[in-house]
Amino acid sequence: MEFFEGLSKDFSHLLNESDDCDVIIYADKDSNVQKFHAHTVILRARSRYFRRALSRDWAKKENGVFVFKKPNITAQVFEIVLKYIYGGTADLQEQSGNVILSLLTASDELNLGELIKYTQEHLIHQKLSWLQENLVQVLHTVSCLEDCKTLREFCLEMICQDPRFLFRSENFCTLDESVLVLLLQRDDLQIDEIEVWENVIKWGLAQDPPLDSDLSKWMDDDFKTMQSRLSRCISLIRYFHISPADFCDRVRPYAKILPEDLHEDILRFHLKSCQQVRSVILPPRIQGIDSKIIKPRHAALVACWIDRKEGNSSTCERIRYEFKLLLRGSRDGFTAAVFHNRCDNQVPTLVLMKVQNTGEIIGGYNPTSWRRTSINSDSGYFPSAPWGPHQRKSALSFARYSQYELGPFQTTSESFIFSLGDGKKVEDFVLSRITRENMCSAVYSSPRLGPCFGRGDLKMTDHFNAPGKCSCEWRDYEREITDCEVFAVEEYEVFHIIDRGTLSSSISPDELHEISEDKPPIMTSGNHTLASTSSTSSTSMSPIQNRTPEYTAYHAGW
User: Fold this and answer.
1) Where is the composition biased (Low complexity) (predicted)?
2) At residue 477, what are phi and psi to the nearest 5 degrees?
3) What is the pTM of this model?
């Protein structure tokens, strides 16, 4: 049995009893100074700072009492600190954002790790509007506090998702150089590179002493001053991802602040379309994704897999796909009915899941359509096929159990399932593509089920957030993606993947009905379709668009 509440109250009463106090602390300064009484034994037990400060080698007594002066901590904040030290409580509901930020600074100085964590979480979850309005002040405060990484990272991510919070702020030009450098280093800053350049120039012009924005009035010393101010920033701009026109009109006027070799390489790159340059070509910034499960860097990795680029996302070019959110479980519901209402006939789709309790992120990519109805089966159970897992099928069996014969199964060589681990390290992933032998059971649709890949490789039945309603049983894909055989999801999302080079990649219900009623049976590989009486070809390199499928060569070999 634990009695922490009573213990907290008893210790809190000691704050109001000064008879046996042996520490006096003066907080705040000038007319706001306030005197606090405390006990050595409690301060030392609760704070590493006071453990050192009250040591024999450091502290000195006056009339048998330790005396401290903390003019850098306001009396209001120090009262909150003492209540936490004595009673283990901190009520911040009625406190302003400025007071809470000051509390964070004081907690860092006094080595109160538990209070630091709680204060950061309170600002993020309870003071979001205040954070958005005071980003520069907050970043200035937390950028130098080692234990405030959570709040610092949250603010940087918020800026990256919508840079206007910072760049349109009247305080932007007072931003610390170190914070500006942190932003420029990020790959997920959601803004055109030319705007990054112009905001860096805006910041440089405003530093003390300010420079005239009219370049025609600049002397050589002005260019040297600007070059010195931006010395840490210049190399972080992604010049090779700025259009030739924007470079010529908006960057080249400042050519004197660029290293000569870099300027020549940019000219050579744009004017001669020459890829062989000596300067380091930084990758393009990763475009965002409206997800509560993954970050833009994970979306970039998935985009590489869609393009069959198996390496890390850092090797990929600018993401060519838009991730359009169709469904979020916590917002729309976790049932199969909701899934089909929102996701049927959207081609292709990405399914993401966050596993309850473990936090593991898993998912699958379906280049074909999800369907509420099927030709032969809507039972919600997987029909028995005449072959076992990983067994080669004959041409006859393949035809007999094709998309339109088998009904709920769809054939493709482009689907895959994956795990991103806990998502903290983008390189910690497992990618598992559909095997050539099992293409005809790549994706399964049923009105009673949610997203299903293979004959159970990744399966969501119904009420996906209930225990045991999701499962992974390795059968048709290359490898197992998780040790969780049966689980529930904490959150799940479905995205429509749209090639930015096309108007849309969705198929309307009317179009799908017309195909199924008026055309010969069709087999699919990726999004390439093969009618039984003819075939088509395409020169597009995007797997979202038609292209020569692996199935063609595979079927010809049977």
Assistant:
1) 532-542
2) -100, 170
3) 0.64
